[in-house]
Design a protein that fits this description.
- The chain is an alpha+beta fold and 694 residues long.
- Among the domains are: 147 residues, YVTN repeat-like/Quinoprotein amine dehydrogenase (Methylamine Dehydrogenase, Chain H, 7 Propeller), CATH 2.130.10; 94 residues, no CATH class.
- 49% of the residues lie in helices and 15% in strands.
- The protein contains 29 helices and 19 strands.
- The strands form five sheets. The chain has a four-stranded antiparallel beta sheet, with no helix packed on it. The protein has a four-stranded antiparallel beta sheet with strand order 5-6-7-8, with no helix packed on it.
- Helix 8 packs antiparallel against helix 11.
- The longest helix is centred in the last third of the chain and has 23 residues.
- It starts with 22 loop residues before the first strand and ends with a helix.
């Protein structure tokens, strides 16, 4: 597929490479195409619009109607009903059959649904050519016997049968608006059939004619011209028909009489006003002017409307003003240099915004800007498209990046605030990365700049702009995007990421917070590696300690504590932290020995003997509780208790307070009394009395 400038957009494979089946017939709609192959399988492709192609590849699937078509029943013709016009909301394919019926084929989940309309009695002959009305309500069927039949698309009602008395099938059959069908035969020209069976022949050289149906007319494209065949609008008939006595015709005569200085003009206009039809006459002249293609005739009808409007003080002038604007636009685009001969109905249906978009796509930027100015439409899309095209054209010359940037700046600067994102992306798309970076500097929104900078691999610049924005979310977005680019196991890629982050302390601090919040036993390495890269051994050791106390097993805890001790050894001013960790390791070793001394690691009378899960204070408490529980059985505990006290320099007062509390809690008053009388208490005897009272 190619755009209007002939540039490649995308390609897709409708048939398998190994499939040599020829395509017999193909029909297109706005967003796709359907092709009938020689083996009676319909290949469908959807998603060909510009918007869809930006987001994803076209969707290709097959419809298989062979369940109701075979050797004894062949297909004779094909048409499609686009999803927007079909009853089901899906693409529907109409197949005429050799047994004088019609099959409606569409997708149903992963299957093909084929509905036989059973039209043998209504048709009387096989259909050889279809044409769908622009609104999708009716379908014109040309049959093998030369009769044109128009039916509803539900095939429940027949509108007309018209016998063309032709033995040959027409080359083309299309709709002209909503109520006439036009057919083309070789050496016959064009035949148009109206809704009541009336017909008219238009002589044309049949070679090189192409008919394009439109909602209100049809275009006849020849080798030298583009002509429009249209039902004459009612307003035009009322105003311009010879001998017309309609109010619009009378006001037109009155205006011409006024211009010629005829005093009867005033009498004529007041006669119309006396019948209360002056408003209607003015509106009819406005509508007739809008329907005209000939500029002098438009001016004549608008003059008549303006003349009549002077006698209608209560008439809203908005319609007159809007019609004048429409005609200015339509006359410009109908010019041969533009080549978009729209009718006013097509213009209204299309909307000015879409028309501006189409002009922009055709690189008619100046005209598009003038229309935006006239109709007060937003012009940013036009300006951005112009800038993109300008960049692409100038890139083919010897212009430098600075010259191209200056040209864009000079032209767009006068229009105020404009997003330069698409312009920068266009420059990057043609390989001018430096130019893209220069243009992107003019973009005022960092959240628009950063995705493109990342796409351009301007990683450090992207991070710097995120930091300058002072938007935490944007900084995190940039950091996570950069992290996702790190190749697992590739030290060079990893070091490059850490280098970029390390160069920006604000980003490094945020990344540390992010890693700490998501740290787990399986996901500790990002924070560890970041801290080691910056040689921050204090924080790396702290992180290892945090990880150690999240472990369920003593082996895992010991592993992380040893790692933290090693990290503290490498750092400066971390000797105190290393001593604390080493003491914790010694405590764990002693706790393991204690666990081996007890009978089992289950709780004994509510006493926690899983020492490796406890702190020093908890371990001392458990040992004292064992002594209180059974002093004879656990006599060895006192020696272990003293070992811990000496090893970790626990004060005598602390041990006294702990023993008093535990004796009292377990109501061991005899042992408490004995303990109080063993020697002079270093904490006095008040705690003994308080625990007894309590």
């Amino acid at each position: 597929m190619y755009d209007l400038q002939g540039r490649f957009v995308t390609d897709f494979q409708l048939l398998d490479m190994t499939d040599s089946t020829p395509i017999l017939e193909c029909h297109f709609w706005g967003n796709g195409a359907a092709a009938m192959t020689a083996n009676t399988v319909i290949k469908v492709v959807e998603g060909l619009s510009a918007t869809d192609l930006v987001l994803h590849r076209p969707r290709i699937y097959a419809l298989d109607p062979r369940q109701k078509i075979g050797k004894d029943r062949n297909y004779t013709s094909m048409a499609i009903i686009p999803p927007l016009l079909s009853r089901s909301g899906l693409l529907e394919v109409l197949l005429g059959t050799s047994d004088q019926s019609v099959l409606v084929v569409h997708e149903a989940g992963n299957e093909t649904l084929v509905e036989d309309q059973l039209l043998q009695k209504k048709l009387g002959a096989p259909i050889t050519k279809f044409a769908l009305a622009p609104d999708g309500r009716f379908v014109a069927c040309y049959k093998k016997d030369g009769v044109l039949t128009v039916m509803s698309t539900s095939f429940t009602s027949k509108v007309i049968d018209f016998d063309t008395k032709s033995a040959s099938r027409p080359i083309t059959i299309e709709w002209c608006g909503k109520d006439a069908v036009i057919m083309q035969w070789r050496n016959t020209g064009l035949v148009m059939v109206g809704p009541f069976g009336d017909w008219i022949n238009f002589p044309y050289d049949s070679s090189g004619i192409h008919i394009v149906p439109e909602p209100d007319c049809c275009r006849i494209i020849t080798s030298t011209s583009c002509e429009i065949l249209q039902l004459v609008p009612a307003a035009t008939v009322a105003a311009l028909e010879i001998g017309s006595t309609e109010p619009a015709a009378l006001i037109l005569d009155a205006m011409e009489a006024f211009e010629e200085g005829d005093p009867k003009s005033d009498e004529n206009i007041r006669t119309i006003a006396s019948t209360n039809q002056l408003n209607e006459a003015v509106q009819s002249c406005i509508q007739a002017a809008a329907s005209e293609f000939f500029s002098p005739q438009q001016q004549r009808l608008l003059k008549a409307a303006s003349y009549g409007k002077a006698f209608c003080p209560d008439l809203d002038p908005t319609e007159f003003v809007e019609t004048a604007k429409k005609l200015r636009v339509l006359n410009e685009i109908r010019h041969a240099s533009i080549g978009i001969p729209l009718t006013v109905q097509q213009y209204n249906r299309l909307t000015p915004e879409v028309l501006v978009g189409r002009l922009t796509t055709r690189n008619q930027h100046l005209l598009a800007l003038k229309i935006c100015e006239l109709l007060r439409l937003k012009n940013e899309r036009v300006l951005i498209h112009w800038a993109c095209e300008k960049v692409k054209r100038m890139a083919l010359t010897t212009s430098t990046d600075e010259e191209i940037n200056q040209t864009i700046k000079n032209q767009l600067g006068k229009f105020g605030r404009i997003s330069y994102l698409a312009v920068a992306e266009a420059a990057y798309g043609i390989g001018r990365r430096r130019l893209a970076t220069i243009i992107l500097d003019r973009e005022q929104q960092p959240d628009d700049q950063i995705p493109l900078l990342l796409k351009m691999n301007e990683e450090e610049l992207a991070l710097q702009k995120a930091i300058n924005s002072e938007d935490t979310d944007l900084i995190y977005y940039t950091l996570i995007s950069l992290e996702s680019r790190v190749i697992p196991g590739n030290k060079s890629s990893q070091d490059n990421f850490y280098r970029i982050v390390h160069n920006h302390p604000e980003a490094a601090n945020l990344l540390k917070i992010y890693y700490r919040n998501k740290i787990s036993s399986q996901d500790r390495m990002p924070l560890h590696n970041l801290l080691l890269y910056s040689k921050n051994y204090m924080e790396a050791g702290n992180a290892a300690v945090t990880q150690a106390f999240q472990q369920m097993s003593s082996a895992g805890k010991t592993q992380f504590l040893k790692e933290s001790s090693t990290l503290y050894t490498q750092g400066k001013d971390t000797s105190f932290m290393r001593i604390l960790v080493d003491e914790q390791l010694d405590l764990i070793d002693l706790q393991k020995q204690l666990e081996k001394r007890v009978d089992h690691v289950e709780q004994i009378n509510g006493i926690n003997t899983e020492f490796t899960t406890q702190t020093l204070h908890g371990t001392l408490t458990s040992l004292i509780e064992l002594m209180v529980y059974d002093e004879a059985q656990y006599r060895w505990v006192d020696a272990e208790l003293q070992k811990l006290v000496k090893k970790f320099k626990v004060s005598e007062k602390t041990i006294y307070y702990m023993k008093v509390e535990i004796y009292g809690k377990n109501r061991k008053w005899g042992q408490l009394s004995k303990f109080a009388s063993e020697r002079k208490s270093p904490i006095g005897y008040r705690p003994f009395a308080l625990v007894a009272i309590k």
